[in-house]
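>> received
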Amino acid sequence: MPTAYLPPYDLLIIGGGINGTGIARDAAGRGLKVLLVEQDDLAAHTSSWSTKLIHGGLRYLEQYEFRLVAEALAEREVLLAAAPHLIEPLAFVLPHERHLRPALLIRAGLFLYDRLGGDMTLPKSFAAKLADTRWGAGLQPRFTKGFVYSDARVDDARLVVINALDAQAKGAKIRVRTRVTRIRRESGLWHATLATGDGRASGVTARALVNAAGPWVGQVLDSFSGAPIQERIRHVKGSHIVVPRVHAEDHAYILQNADDRIVFIIPFHENFSLIGTTDVPVDDFEHPMISAEETEYLLALVNSYLARPLAKQEIVWTYSGVRPLYDDGRGNPSMVTRDYVLRVDAFPGPPGAGRAPALSVFGGKITTYRKLAEAALAQLAPFFPGLKPAWTRNAVLPGGDLPNGDREAWAARLCTSYPQLPPAFLRTLAKRHGTRAQLILGGARTPDDLGRNFGAGLTEGEVDYCIANEWARTADDILWRRTKCGLAMTPEQRTAVASYLAGQSGREGSA
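>> returned
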């Protein structure tokens, strides 16, 4: 283990998903010296494999999770204002299946959903006629009535990245593809050995540790804790399929199933529909993949609603993520709470090991990550006298400082400022980067000024920006996390991006 250490950090955060980056941002903004390490890419695991929703969780009302739903609905408003380029309102249509839930029960649930979070800017729910209206687009004609309510969707991986950007702007150090190989508590400090993929090792110390390792939270806790783990973790796999767009309207569907689960059909990147998710308990969470049974489950459910059935051959992409849920003892994986639990461990280990605290994060959902970060800092506050107060509630995330919070107006301004660039390209760039799109466009006058066009609107200029500013290293980082351009590319185009990235090694700017 290296013997030379830099001056100690206040926080060493393990895990570069939404919870880790959210805590890093909050802590750095309160004046703490923060180091975040992630063994792979930012959002490489659970945080980029979600259903891409910022929502209260309508179905959680049936599980009496009123506090979680209320907090999530309130956070939906906060995040809509903080990142209007990445998060946008979305209408959801719930076709009524009489034999599954009575209409009066649905009305009552939606009435509560509209009001639990306090004052809401999104439209209230209402009953709707589906037959021969846009609300029933793509559905079988047997669905004549339904309900419409509001939630929001998000580019989940980019939300992680902009939290890391804000953390870095406030002084945090972000290190990707860096693994903690050894950690111990000694004389009031955490001593950690960090190793990069090329074998380089370094030592760091920190006054406190945050274990936000997602599915690996238990493994990390085992590596340093001298006490038996009391909390149990349920690893639940959620899989999604992506197909050509099932209808031309802008709304999503929430579909009920006889097993009491729900599945979403969500408009996805202009020409596609995202369908998910499943809930499957798993023990192996290193490389989750959709199973044949999950594929059949999703297709069977959506085909019981859609006028034109989908065939397996129409699936253009699948992805799976493992949610590390706090085990509340419920047998059905779909019923296990999505709420978060924080454990602060200040005194394990042999006598004299010191009081350096470790906070471990169990569970949680992307919608409530900011509140989770606030709660984590509240738990750590006794160890940092003079810690600055909470600040993120009214703070805009990088790229989100759009004039009047209007993404369409911002895209229109870009079209005016760059008249020789394709409007569709500029609108997409505005969605991905908000006001930071100008850092990519710079003084470009024509498409050639942005370098090579790899396809699907991905230019050399944007790739270079992601390498220099957003910790991107590989083609997967670019194609599936910083953008979703890989979805509309040919295999040859994706290979060309990989070849370009291979030639750019050593140019990283944000590491």
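>> The chain has three domains: 9-45+158-232+338-394, 87-153+233-329, 403-502.
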